[in-house]
Amino acid sequence: MAYLWQLHVMLGTMMFVVGTVVGSFLNVCIYRIPWEKSVIWPPTSHCPHCLATIEARDNVPIFGWIFLGGKCRNCRQPFSVRYAAIELLVGLLFVAVYLVDGVMPKEFVDSNMALLVKVLYHVVLVALLVTITFIDADLTIVPSLVTNVGIFLGLALGTLFPEVRPVPAEASTALGGLWVGLKGVLVGGGMIWIIRVVGTFVFRREAMGSGDIHILALIGAFLGWQVALVTPFLASFVGLVPAISKLVVSLGKRLAGRKYLASDHEMPFGPYLSVAALILMMAWPWIWPGRLQTYFETFSMLFWFVLGQDR
Ligand SMILES: [Zn+2]
User: Based on the domain organization, do 226 and 152 belong to the same domain?
Assistant: First the structure.
């Protein structure tokens, strides 16, 4: 296979192009879903300023924005760079999925079909989490349409292709795959639910939104309960950077005698859960064997030991 790397470059480029097109569609989803508008009708996009229809040639992902200099062809008002940035982001995430699953797979993939299924499974999760992240970051709402469709897809795909989930959440039968998915939904959703109940009791204010329950349930449906269990911990670390910078800003405002806004305090957790889940999805084959596996085995031994004492 002397030409293997050419094949990888070709398929990787293809993944990037497909990713930017998907990203372009996700822009539409992020914009329309919170207003309960159809994501497929009308099929054309409009300038947010003058409402002129954006022509097909200007609607090419990333390049459309660059060629127009980030401005509407009709009214010359600027388009947000975020549209192009999301297209680029999704393109890069698709390439990352291809790299992890196709170029340097840690887990043995026994056929091209199995590889294709794995890549598709992972890019579907990328698309769902990107949509959730930007809607939550914009409006601090978690779109239940997206989480419900996501939980359903995770359960259905995991039942159809039970071997697709990361070790040790893979299964060999359809029923096994469904069971793994249901456990993921219960552990993921249940964990945030418990944090919410305890947090609300301790801090006397709402800790985490109910939408976060659905996000982690979705992640559990796709990746199994083990990943769902680790995700909130990693999410807290990912969230530390913006949390600290917000703290500095609000402290600065207080010291300057300026009004402390509630919005300085409010932080959606959904984006951090999503980022953490995507990191774990890609890094899992490297971090599970050895390290994490040992922790899980030790904790489950302790868990059953404590439970066994009661009997
Ligand atoms: Zn315009």
Answer: yes
CA of 72 to the centre of ligand 1 (A): 5
Instruction: Supply angle C-alpha 279, 31, 250, rounded to 5.
Output: 65
For helices 210-223 and 270-287, angle between their N-to-C axes, nearest 10 degrees: 20
In a domain, 292, yes or no: no
Same domain, 89 and 158: no
According to DSSP, the residues that pair with 71 across neighbouring strands are: 78
Same domain, 214 and 89: no
Specify whether the CB–CB gap between 147 and 214 falls below 8 A. Answer: yes
The pTM of this model reads 0.91
Distance 79 CA to ligand 1 centre (A): 9
Centroid of ligand 1 to alpha carbon of 277 (angstroms): 37
Token digits for 67?
Answer: 């060629």
83-111 pLDDT, tens per residue? 999 999 999 999 999 999 998 877 667 78
Mutual orientation of helices 82-98 and 4-32 as an angle, nearest 10°? 140
Sign of CA dihedral 96, 100, 101, 103: positive
Both 94 and 156 in one domain: the answer is: no
